[in-house]
UniProtKB/TrEMBL annotation:
Protein family per UniProt: Belongs to the HARBI1 family.
Predominant cellular place of this UniProt entry's protein: nucleus
Listed InterPro entries: HARBI1-like, HARBI1_dom
Organism phylogeny: Eukaryota, Metazoa, Chordata, Craniata, Vertebrata
UniProt KW Iron keyword: no
A Gene Ontology term for the protein's cellular component: nucleus
Protein name per the record: Protein ALP1-like
Length: 244
C-alpha cells in the first residue's frame, strides 16, 4: 500500500482527538513451526507468532503496516526496530508541519499517533498518563486517547473476522505468512472503501480509572501530552461527552 503523503495525513486527522494521524497498535498472528527452528517466534503468550504493526484511520482502514517481526519481540521493540518506527524517528514519514489546535492561535502542536502504554512517549506518539490519575485533565486525556486508540483494536477485530486465515495457526514459511498478512490488509482496505461500512461508536461510558503501567517518557512528549490535556479542558477543546 502506498505511503501517505502530507495531504493524506491532514485528511486523516480527526476532530475528537485533534492533530491525530491515527491509532498505532500491534497484533500477534499465529504461525505453526517447530520450537527447534522457531524459538524466536515464541511469544510471551506461549505460542508462535509474527507481529503485525499498523496505523489505522478513523474509518478503520490501514494507513501503514509493518509485518514480520518475531513473536518473541515485544510491541515496543518491534516498533522501534521496524521500518515504520525508524522512518518516524528519522522524520521520513512526510508528516504535516505542526499547527495550532482548533480554536487557538498558539502554540503550534505536532501531529501525533495515539497508542497504549507499550509504545514510547514522543512528540509524535501519545500514550496515556500512567497510573490511576486523580487530576481531571489527565483522566479526560486518557479517556479521549482511549477512544481514539480503540480504532486500531476494532480494525484488527474486523480483519480477523473477515479473513478466515486468522482463525487458526498459519502453517506456512514465514516469508509466505508475511505476504498473506499484507494481502489481507490490502483486501481489508479495498472492502472498507467499497462498502463504506459505518462502524457505530458505542463507547460513551464514564471516564475510566485505567491502571496503566508506569513508564516515563521523553520530556518533549510529556510537554505535548500536557498541552493536549490542558486543551481538552479549555472552552475550545472540550466536547460534551468527556465529562458524562
Amino acid at each position: 500500500m502506498p505511503p501517505p503523503d502530507e495531504n493524506t495525513w491532514i485528511n486523516i486527522a480527526e476532530d475528537n482527538f485533534p492533530n491525530c494521524l491515527g491509532a498505532l497498535g500491534g497484533k500477534h498472528i499465529r504461525v505453526t513451526m517447530s520450537f527447534k527452528n522457531g524459538s524466536k517466534y515464541f511469544n510471551y503468550k506461549k505460542y508462535f507468532s509474527v507481529v503485525l504493526l499498523a496505523t489505522v484511520d478513523a474509518n478503520y482502514c490501514f494507513t501503514i503496516i509493518d509485518v514480520g517481526s518475531y513473536g518473541s519481540t515485544g510491541d515496543a521493540s518491534a516498533f522501534r526496530n521496524s521500518a515504520m518506527g525508524c522512518r518516524l524517528s528519522e522524520g521520513a514519514l512526510r508528516l504535516p508541519l505542526p499547527k495550532p489546535l482548533p480554536g487557538t492561535a498558539a502554540p503550534s502542536m505536532p501531529y501525533v499517533f495515539v497508542g497504549d502504554d507499550v509504545f514510547g512517549l514522543a512528540e509524535n506518539i501519545m500514550r496515556p498518563y500512567p497510573g490511576s490519575q486523580r487530576a481531571i485533565e489527565k483522566r479526560v486525556f486518557n479517556y479521549r486517547l482511549s477512544r481514539a486508540r480503540r480504532m486500531v483494536e476494532c480494525t484488527f477485530g474486523i480483519l480477523s473476522n473477515k479473513c478466515c486465515v486468522f482463525h487458526t495457526s498459519i502453517q506456512l514459511e514465514p516469508d509466505f505468512v508475511d505476504i498473506i498478512i499484507k494481502a489481507c490488509c490490502v483486501l481489508h482496505n479495498f472492502v472498507r472503501l467499497r462498502d463504506r461500512y459505518n462502524y457505530q461508536d458505542t463507547l460513551t461510558d464514564d471516564i475510566p480509572d485505567i491502571d496503566w503501567a508506569t513508564v516515563r517518557g521523553p520530556t518533549g512528549g510529556m510537554r505535548v501530552r500536557d498541552q493536549f490535556a490542558n486543551y481538552f479542558m479549555s472552552p475550545d477543546g472540550v466536547i460534551p461527552w468527556q465529562l458524562n
